[in-house]
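Everyone, carefully examine this protein record:
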Amino acid sequence: MHTTLEKLASLARDRTPAGRTVLFDRVAGLLLESEEELPEGATALIDQILTGLLHEVEAEVRKKLACRIATVEAAPRDLIRALAADDIEIAAPILVQSPVLSTRDLLDVIEARSPAHREALARRAQVPEAVMVALVRLKEPQVLKSLLSNAGVSIPRNIFNDLVAIAEGMEQIRMPLVAREEMPKDLAYQMFWYVSAALRQSILKRFPIAPRELDAIMAELVAERGAKRVRSLPPQSAWTNGEVQALVAKVRSGDVEGFTKGLSAVTGVDPVTARRIVRDAGGEPLAVACKAMGADRTQFTSIVVQVDKLVSGVARPPAFLADVARTYDSVTTQAAKAMLKVWSLHSAPQAA
């Protein structure tokens, strides 16, 4: 081996581009094709030679090496780091596959390289939490889409929190977010306020909340925010048909504010959430509230049609009611009550 290295050292005296390439290929072959374990110190010497030559050879040569060495567990670390910082066509296989890169190495790439480099990192089989945090902080749509599409990684709740907040202003990541199996149910329902009608139906289908899950959601929020920053669960109300009919009368009389206050009182949701339900242009949150209250089909129709006309100022076509009715029909009363409670739990705390 030492004799071979000495011969290679003699090639180093050829400073032409062709000579550099020959030397680079020979040393890379020594690293990748040796059938015996390299002696102590040999790997370090090879690392030094290849790293030193890296930017003296053509991009295609570097790319070939990157593809061959990407999955090698014993690959020299300095060489791997140098390849990871190269142009994306060369760096991509290293960024996606190399087990040699440490968390610090990945963070250095995030800080110093391009969105394409960060997108490649998001496709790794394992993405450390610190790396996810750094990727999410930059709010790059394609990077976030790749992270969310990476089925091999487990995304922790704190990062889902950040992604849900970002998704309000970034439509591109809403569908991938809803598609994640481990998406916390209460955070999925936070998205309900700003996603399309189709995604609202997907949320209802994929993330049904059972009443028994509410205590666990409450505990999660307390641990996350602190008890003083989490709204208490609204009390279970014994809603009667008379109360529902009184709300119908309010809205028929044109009293939107009175209806909103009554909705808050009857359902137990906080006033902020009640107002959001009434003012939502899609109508689905109101359908959920009607189902939770036990409004029958006639009451539901009266409430939705009248509220929409009062809030929007126009009478919408029958197709609008049909769309909203899909939510009313698809959600159970118990699930609707749980949704109202989750919305209240997440509502901004009242001023002291």
Residues 148 and 180 are 7 Å apart (CA to CA).
